[in-house]
Amino acid sequence: MSDTEGDPRHLETLDRDLARFSNVELAALYVSRPMVSTGIALIFVVMAGLAAALFFGQANNSVIVVVAACLGAYMALNIGANDVANNMGPAVGANALTMGGAIAIAVVFESAGALLAGGDVVSTVAKGIIAPESMGTANAFIWAMMAALLSAALWINLATWIGAPVSTTHSVVGGVMGSGIAAVGFAAVNWPTMSKIAASWVISPVLGGAVAALFLALIKSRIIYREDKIAAARVWVPVLVGVMAGSFASYLALKGLNKVIKIEIYTTLLIGLGIGLVTWAVMIPLIRRQSEGLENRNKSLKVLFGIPLIVSAALLSFAHGANDVANAVGPLAAIVQASGTGNFTEAVSIPTWVMVMGAFGISFGLFLFGPKLIRLVGGQITKLNPMRAYCVALSAAITVIVASWLGLPVSSTHIAVGGVFGVGFFREWDAERRIRKAKVAMPDRARFAPEERRRRKLVRRSHFMTVIAAWVITVPAAATLSAVIFFGIQSVAG
């Protein structure tokens, strides 16, 4: 043993060297993690193409189906990375679910919704935006759908990268519109349908935000601002859970059961009313038992909203899987049908293998790339707790029911994120109102610098402006990109 080996200075140098190695390893892991995720995603896309080749290897236009399957898999990955965050973000931001728990629940319920309740819901996407018969030939229709699929996937990928939750359906709609205009001209577009979709840019977030703010106002006035918060919670929490159960029952009946048998909106409302009343009656003794021994403070109330919030997030994921995923893979289903039969003017139904690929794709996309937007929606726009997040989830279900009843087109993405904004802006308004009412802190507040006053806002304006801008340009951006891709495909295919 040398003399230097026992020297404390030698040991300190060794510790510093080891620390440097540790930092290098951490840096390498940080850099390689996105590469690993991208590699796994690429393998999934290739596997989807190989599966399509296996099923359609002997069929006509098999190369087209294989390419379309790869594009559909890429699209499904982007749905998982972007769209699903809107359902899980509030629960994660409120600490009702861990990131791992949220991803696990979303994977199960999104897949279940897509496979069990996802049906023939692609008529608007594949047929309602452009008139298929105006395309002239099956090949022109196939190129248009392929351009739409790729442009929508690329746009959602870009939006995820910059941290903006956008509507998957609107991206696909923009893609179909752009390729249709490129193929035939502006006359091919169903402009009344497009005007309804454009109206949903405003209707969806405003309705979602307003409903979420109203429920938060109810919770604050009837529970949080009461002297005996626990006693008030015993009365109102069962009511709120009953409203949630009834809303989701109507929502799922409207989006799922309606695909099996034709039911009117009034029937779905009656189903929701019955289930809501039963749930309310069951929850009264459960909440009373759960609230025993809780301290009379706001922190205790979070316990009572935790489980309902988790259940609502799971139900939202199921409903999203049943509806939005099917819409997103609609162009792929249209390509498969047109390639196999040559018929591109009849109604499109989604083959089972397309739905399975979509379900697996959203699961991989959520697992590999979803955490970024889950964090954004759940905690970076405004601070959420279980009560506020519960209002967002409840708003999403109720707004879809109301909009369907009124015949208004809405986007589930815009509703959920609009609910988060609505909760945040209501908190800002309520805080200002309470300050004015109490007549305290006004002179001090007036002395704040403009930068400090902006910093104290409860909704981050930078995220607000980014999201709004992304919403506004989604359809035109996807349409422009789709038109460029269509011309590229047409020039290559001859």
TrEMBL record:
Q: What is its main location?
A: membrane
An example Gene Ontology biological process: phosphate ion transmembrane transport
- GO CC annotations, alphabetized: membrane
InterPro entries on file: Phos_transporter (IPR001204)
Spell out where the chain crosses the membrane.
Answer: 35-56, 63-81, 140-160, 197-219, 231-253, 265-283, 303-322, 350-369, 389-406, 412-429, 464-489
Q: How does it sit in the membrane?
A: Multi-pass membrane protein
Q: Which UniProt keywords apply?
A: Membrane, Phosphate transport, Transmembrane, Transmembrane helix, Transport
The record's subcellular location field reads: Membrane
Domain of life here? Bacteria
Pfam families registered for this protein in UniProt: PHO4
Establish whether keyword Lyase is in the entry.
no
Instruction: Kindly list any coiled-coil regions of this protein.
Output: none
Q: Report a single Gene Ontology molecular function.
A: phosphate transmembrane transporter activity
Q: Which family does it belong to?
A: Belongs to the inorganic phosphate transporter (PiT) (TC 2.A.20) family.
Q: What is this protein called?
A: Phosphate transporter
Q: Which organism is it from?
A: Pseudosulfitobacter pseudonitzschiae
Annotated gene: pitA
